[in-house]
Amino acid sequence: MTVNQTSPTVSPPRQEAAAPPSGKPLARKAKKSAYPYWFYLPAAAIYAALFLLPTFASFIFSFTRWTIFDATFIGFGNFIQFFQEPALVTGLRNTIVYAAVTSVLKVVLGMLCGILLTSNIIARGFLRSVLFFPVLLSTIGVGIMFSVLMDPTKGLINQVLGVVGIQGPAWLADPAWALLSVALVDVWKGVGLATVIYIAGIVSIPQEFFEAARVDGAGSLKTFWNITMPLARPATTTVIILSLIGGLRSFDLIWAMTQGGPGFASDVIASVIYKQYQAGFYGLSTAGNVVLFLIVTAVILPLSILLNRKEVEQ
Amino acid sequence: MRNLKRYGPGTLAIILATALFLVPLAFMVLTAVKDRRQAAKLDWSWPTNFSLLENLQQVISARNFMLVTAFVNSTILTLVSITVLVVLAAMVAWVLQRRRSRWNGVANFLILSGLIIPPAVVPTIWVLQGLGLFKTMPGLILVEVAFGMSFCVMIFRAFISTIPRELDEAAVIDGCGPVRLFFRVIFPLLRSVIVTVVVVQSVAIFNDFQNPLYFFPGDKNATVQLTLFNFQSQFTTSYNLLFTDILLVTIPPLIMYLFFNRQIVAGMTAGAVKG
Q1: Is-contact B206 B74, C-beta < 8 A?
Q2: Position A69 pLDDT exceeds 70
């Protein structure tokens, strides 16, 4: 580290060394680094203007009645309205449920598939490819496809269930099932990514651990519980954090499949934000953004600290 | 018995994976080649007459060749955003990784925020309007660049840490200025990770729905995903056209996947799991 820090001064550019008296010492010192700060500038400008500034502005505008051109300060009015309307509160609850369901399923299924696809199984490459492919599909396309497949009477899913003698639910039309149905499709699309992360995590576990366990006579269940699970922890952390962030912010799939319906049964904060924006309630919509911001921060920050700390303790 | 143990789980996995992942896709393709009446039954019957070409023609010419406009827009959006994103993110990552300074903490914090914080939508529109870029392609491109920056910088940074610093020093001794050093020496070395970033981000941007919906509204402006969403209501009874449309929109990521399968997975894991 120290060597690296000083190295640019040790080897000054040749040209400057050739003509030392002409350059002013101060200006030359500022120019000397091979890693100029202005490399940050273009990226920083775009990022500041279109990400940071709007984020800060959202805290101001969420306290106003806002028409883009003109804003009147109304204090906590938007937030009070947000938490008083049952439809909006449903959105809040649904967001949490959706994020929790999708991440739990992605962790469990991703880990299972990860173990399966790192074991000595036939057609491993084929299975990996098949599992990963939906990650690349268009979310809107997947949403439309599954809303057709989940049609209560004509849909393929219920037809297949009917053959086995199960009366499938009216997936997207039934308020009790709508959110869960979308969450299941989300898992269908996203489990490939979780699996790939787990594969990377499991492959990086040194083989000696497994060999030692085998010598000690541990069965596969024991090996999984005492070796794979704890040592694949970085992968678990990554999958949990990624899918929670994705789940809390999720919009595309829900909008393509139910648009928050039936009623408000599958509304999440992101779809509420869009609806309020569409209706012209910009202040309220921005308040929704702030609520989402607070939830994401409140969930992710402590969780990542907790997960990363335990990792170190190991 | 031993054979069962060896091939049993594998066979089961293949059957399950096929049923869960390939059957829906096969159904989509099958419906896309049928004519309207047969597609409406939503069954597994073999198409009586292959109407893929007619379907394609109808989907493409619908609403005044909207899909063509959308494909052009999406292509421009993806290509330009990716180019800008790759160059700018690599520049940031390189300086951030190489130069220790008190800015590093700030920069790292900002990068993490970019990954976690949901973008504030309406204020972004407000900024774009202030810049005169709302509902324009450059505006949408800048938005995609801003939102994708964190992820790209992180991936680049992890990779740059594996490039020996002596290389930079040698180039500096040979008289390279920072710009030349970066574009002539460092940038070419990043090739493999650039491919990863390009593939992952271009799939993300091409498939993006939310940002075009907010920042690029209007019929004239449509992107592929917006068009697909709007066609959903228009073709609500013509499943053959709907599925043909999905098929068309899926082709570009599919090509990416076929070419860069290995690279994508390697890059995903490299970026996702540290250590």
Answers
A1: yes
A2: yes
| CA–CA gap between residue B11 and residue B3 (Å, rounded) | 11
DSSP A21: T
Inform me whether the pLDDT recorded for A55 exceeds 90. Answer: yes
Alpha helices, DSSP H, located in chain A:
2-10, 14-18, 25-31, 41-47, 53-61, 77-84, 86-118, 124-136, 139-149, 156-164, 175-203, 207-215, 220-223, 229-231, 233-249, 252-257, 269-278, 282-313
- Sequence length of chain B is 275
So what's the ipTM on this one? 0.88
Question: Residue A111's closest CA among A223, A30, A191, A25?
Answer: A191
Q: Identify which of B23, B26, B40 has the alpha carbon closest to the alpha carbon of residue A153.
A: B40
Largest CA distance in chain A: 92
Question: Residue A8 pLDDT > 60, yes or no?
Answer: no
B residues 54-73 near A, CB within 8 Å? none
Q: Say yes or no for a CB contact (<8 Å) between B28 and A145.
A: yes
To which residue do tokens 């309020």 refer? Answer: A276
Q: Render pLDDT for A135-155 as a digit per residue (tens, 0 to 9).
A: 888 999 999 999 988 888 888
- CA within 13 Å, CB half, A75: 2
Evaluated on CA atoms A283, A287, A289, A293, the torsion sign reads: positive
SS3 A280: coil
Measuring CA to CA, how many Å separate B273 from each of A180, A199, A234, B60?
Answer: 29, 10, 7, 42
**Are A68 and A280 a contacting pair, CB within 8 Å?**
no
- Residue A65 pairs with which residues in a beta bridge? A72
Paired residues of A64 in beta bridges: A73
- Give the residue-averaged pLDDT of B27-38: 86
Average pLDDT of the segment spanning A177-183 = 93
Residues 2..21 of A with a Cβ closer than 8 Å to B: which? Answer: 4-5, 7-8, 11, 13-15
- Which amino acid would we find at residue A52? L
SS3 A65: strand
B240 to chain A, closest Cα gap in Å = 11
Q: Is residue A16 packed enough to be buried (19+ CB in 10 Å), middle (13-18) or exposed (0-12)?
A: middle
| Preferred mutation among B126, B237, B274 to probe A, highest tally of A CBs within 10 A | B126
